[in-house]
Amino acid sequence: MPKYNIHVCIVSDQPIPNYVPVLDNQFRPREVVLLVTGKMQQKAAALEQTLKTRCGVKTRQIAIASEYDMQEMEDKVLGELIALDEAKENIALNLTGGTKLMAIAAYRTFHDAGYPAFYFTATSNEVLLLDNNERLTLQPPKIKIEDYLRLHGYQIAANNQVQRSVPPGRQKIGETLAIAPERFADALTVLNGDISAAIENNSNTLDILLRKPTVKNLDALLNLFAKENLLTRSGNRIHFSDKDARTYINGGWLEEYVFSEIKKIADIQDIALNVEIQNAQKGITQNNELDIAFLHNNALYVLECKTKNYNNKSEGQAQNELYKLETLKKLGGLRTKTAFVSYRALKAHVRDRAKGADIKIIEQKDLQGFKTLLKNWMTQQTP
Question: What's the whole-model pTM score?
Answer without folding.
Answer: 0.90
